[in-house]
């Protein structure tokens, strides 16, 4: 089993890189564990307080659960991956069953900040992109998928996303084995990553 960590700023193109990895391998060979599914369960906190919490710092993530479930997958056990709802900022009762696969992708802005998680990774990737490009993508995504207005997104970017990126996410780049500039549009870097991943897999999984 190959564990791949894919980090990078919000809106950098991580999802595009993950999608292209999945497309390059046989169907059913990849399982994805999004960091966003592992936000701590704050359902006991009033909604108005939850909406104002900082979700871009390492302390917001349930690293213990994430690392434990990765170890269970490596041991050949299926897991129940949690689900998180961004509009209410709470963990749902529903879960998603994830079975062991040849490739496990752990994707999220903070996945290279946690030492226990890095130790489990065979390949560590950082997807890089200009700040203005990331902001545009975040505005499009959050307005459509998370019920936020453009002004809400810009305010959050100025007060939370940008400072947290500079404090935690950008410094985690030094742990990466591969940095992909220009986000998910860097065809050469993505092709090199896909070729490297295939070289590490058993012949019958390529």
Describe what this molecule looks like in 3D.
The model has no long low-confidence stretch (mean pLDDT 89). 39% of the residues lie in helices and 20% in strands. It has 206 residues and is α/β, with parallel strands linked by helices. The chain has seven helices and seven strands. A five-stranded parallel sheet has the order 2-5-1-6-7, covered by helices on one side. A two-stranded antiparallel sheet has the order 3-4.
Mean pLDDT: 89
Helix residue percentage: 25-40%
Q: What is the count of distinct domains? A: 1
The percent range for strand residues is 15-25%
* DSSP summary, beta strand count: 7
Q: What's the total helix number?
A: 7
Backbone CA Rg: 17 Å
């Amino acid at each position: 089993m190959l564990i791949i960590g894919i980090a990078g700023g919000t809106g950098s193109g991580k999802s595009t890189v993950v999608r292209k990895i999945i497309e390059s391998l046989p169907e059913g060979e990849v399982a994805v564990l999004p960091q966003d599914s592992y936000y701590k369960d704050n359902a006991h906190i009033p909604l108005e307080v939850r909406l104002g919490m900082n979700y871009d710092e390492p302390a917001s993530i349930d690293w213990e659960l994430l690392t434990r479930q990765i170890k269970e997958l490596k041991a050949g056990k299926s897991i129940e991956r949690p689900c998180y709802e961004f509009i209410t900022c709470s963990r749902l009762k529903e879960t998603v069953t994830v079975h062991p696969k040849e490739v496990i992708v752990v994707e999220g802005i903070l996945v290279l900040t946690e030492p226990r998680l890095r130790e489990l990774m065979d390949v560590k990737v950082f997807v890089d992109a200009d700040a203005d490009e990331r902001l545009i993508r975040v505005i499009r995504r959050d307005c459509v998928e998370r019920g936020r207005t453009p002004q809400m997104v810009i305010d959050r970017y100025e007060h939370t996303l940008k400072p947290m990126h500079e404090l935690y996410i950008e410094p985690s780049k030094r742990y990466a084995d591969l940095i992909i500039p220009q986000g998910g549009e860097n065809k050469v870097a993505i092709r090199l990553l896909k070729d490297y991943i295939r070289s590490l897999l058993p012949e019958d999984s390529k």
